[in-house]
Design brief:
Largest sheet: 5 strands, antiparallel
Low-confidence stretches: none
Radius of gyration: 28 Å
Structural class: alpha+beta
CATH architecture of the largest domain: 2-Layer Sandwich
Number of helices: 7
Number of strands: 23
CATH superfamily of the largest domain: Schlafen, AAA domain
Strand order of the largest sheet: 16-17-15-20-21
CATH topology of the largest domain: Methyltransferase, Cobalt-precorrin-4 Transmethylase, Domain 2
Mean pLDDT: 92
Number of domains: 2
CATH class of the largest domain: Alpha Beta
Helix content: 10-25%
Length: about 300
């Protein structure tokens, strides 16, 4: 999904500030814009392929530059079929299909500026019957075999995420028919949403100490430290997570009673997920996650 569209205000600010072209914001000379000219179309495709293989970016046609800096709007010739033609050119000549691509026209001072923004994920991309392109300064160049191999390797990576928790309904301990304590045995799930297996990961769970049964056997061996009101449990990955695999990483025991109800209502529980490509943090209200007989637990 393209996050932000370029506006006329952006373009005018580039000109006022004489912004320099880069391989993330590329100002293309009008000479390359010649629909129907096979050689020029091939050059245009090389720019698009290069920007796709190097993480995406925005191409702008219709600006005059001097030493690669935006100078003024000169416009390009387009019609109501231009966007469809350009999309077709890209779709039929670059493989795999570039999914996240946005093409639109800005009319500024009665002159047309064409904007093409790409967010690339499934690199590398290849021009059919031509090859793979990257950058040589601000000009497209063919990639070497080792560079193509590296792109393939970089595009396949794990992506761990927290899926959710099950067993959030409490079980009451009764005295004279009145709950004196509500216990929970939640199980926490993570998933590998990436395109490569992951074997190096761990998860930290932060629960308020007053609610946590640190002697609960599935959890006690992972007690790591106390941090303020929290008990921190550090659980290493025990198995390789393959693509789209969902895994129960931990089971805990929590109890709510009159002496800790304020902690239950006030505090969150936190999850820190560490893996080879980074760290993710999740925070949830205890009182909004755990309930009894499908109702929220209140102080009364």
């Amino acid at each position: 999904m393209i996050k932000e569209k370029i506006t006329p205000t952006h373009v005018l600010s580039w000109i006022d500030g004489k912004i320099k072209s880069s391989n993330r914001l590329l100002f293309i000379e009008n000479a390359i814009w010649q629909p129907g000219n096979e050689r020029k179309e091939r050059q245009l495709l090389q720019y698009i392929d290069a920007i796709s293989n190097q993480g995406g970016g925005t191409m702008v046609l219709g600006l005059q530059t001097f030493r690669n800096r935006a100078q003024k709007i000169i416009g390009i010739e387009i019609n109501e079929r231009t966007e469809f033609w350009l999309r077709t050119l890209i779709k039929t000549n670059i493989s795999p299909v570039i999914e996240n691509i946005d093409i639109y026209t800005l009319c500024i001072n009665d002159k047309n500026v064409l904007v093409l923004t790409i967010e690339s994920n499934d690199v590398p991309y290849m021009i059919i019957s031509d090859g793979f392109y990257g950058w040589n300064d601000l000009k497209p160049r063919k990639l070497h075999e080792q560079e193509i191999r590296q792109l393939y390797q970089n595009s396949h990576k794990p992506l761990l995420e927290y899926v959710g928790v099950i067993n959030t309904q409490g079980v009451a301990l009764l005295e004279n028919g009145i709950p004196t304590s509500i216990q929970f045995y939640p199980k926490f799930l993570i998933r590998n949403a990436g395109t490569a297996p992951e074997k190096d990961y761990k998860v930290e769970f932060w629960f308020p100490s007053s609610l946590t049964d640190a002697n609960f056997s599935p959890l006690q061996q992972y007690f790591h430290r106390l941090d303020g009101v929290y008990s921190v449990f550090s659980i290493p990955g025990k198995t390789t997570l393959f693509q789209d695999e969902v895994y129960t990483i931990a089971e805990a025991k929590l109890a709510v009673h009159t002496e800790n109800i304020e902690d239950f209502l006030e505090h969150d529980f936190l999850i820190h997920l560490f893996y080879s490509k980074g760290k993710k943090t999740y925070r949830f209200k205890l009182s909004e996650t755990f309930n009894y007989q499908k109702q929220r637990i209140l102080n009364n």
